[in-house]
């Protein structure tokens, strides 16, 4: 039962270069070029979203930092959001529910922030290990705690995103598997429940993409 349940997250092919992972980019590649040139409701909505994210990330990172530094985080938000939404469609591989995808996004970002911070702002990074107002007797313990907290950051980012994607898909799979054994009345109730759950998962897709990006932005602001 458990093997068949989690098999919904397995790639459908075992080729050396599986086309399943192309779903991570195919959603953005399928957007017609005219979408960015011809004004439309969706184009205006997406422009407003990106401008809002740009203003928020600019505040988190700092206005005096490198111009255009928010672009990488807006692109990261777009990539995760497209993958989360594509995973809600039938027969589309959900790449954001796999640790190999989420950790590939989180680990290089965290490593780049740490390397940049320890090379250029060594004193600040050392001072960040001991919060202000910590009693001297607790300083060695706080250094250990803060060090462990920094090390597990990419893991928590990756696990949070993949776990939330897996939880919703498993619940929809469980409800869908009970459909053939239900009566007509219960089947109608199940369909309504699935629709409501799909709306909830759409909201979770947006929230998790936003949380992943905001936390990455906060991590980058700590090294400056």
From TrEMBL:
It is found in: Membrane; Mitochondrion inner membrane. One of its GO terms (molecular function) is proton-transporting ATP synthase activity, rotational mechanism. Keywords: ATP synthesis, CF(0), Hydrogen ion transport, Ion transport, Membrane, Mitochondrion, Transmembrane, Transmembrane helix, Transport. Gene3D superfamilies: ATP synthase, F0 complex, subunit A (1.20.120.220). Signal peptide: none annotated. It is a multi-pass membrane protein. SUPFAM superfamilies: F1F0 ATP synthase subunit A. One of its GO terms (cellular component) is mitochondrial inner membrane. The chain crosses the membrane at residues 20-38, 71-93, 99-119. InterPro entries: ATP_synth_F0_asu (IPR000568), ATP_synth_F0_asu_AS (IPR023011), ATP_synth_F0_asu_bact/mt (IPR045083), F0_ATP_A_sf (IPR035908). Its main location: membrane. Belongs to the ATPase A chain family. Mitochondrial membrane ATP synthase (F(1)F(0) ATP synthase or Complex V) produces ATP from ADP in the presence of a proton gradient across the membrane which is generated by electron transport complexes of the respiratory chain. F-type ATPases consist of two structural domains, F(1) - containing the extramembraneous catalytic core and F(0) - containing the membrane proton channel, linked together by a central stalk and a peripheral stalk. During catalysis, ATP synthesis in the catalytic domain of F(1) is coupled via a rotary mechanism of the central stalk subunits to proton translocation. F-type ATPases have 2 components, CF(1) - the catalytic core - and CF(0) - the membrane proton channel. CF(1) has five subunits: alpha(3), beta(3), gamma(1), delta(1), epsilon(1). CF(0) has three main subunits: a, b and c. This is ATP synthase subunit a. It comes from Rhizophagus dispar (Root-eating beetle).
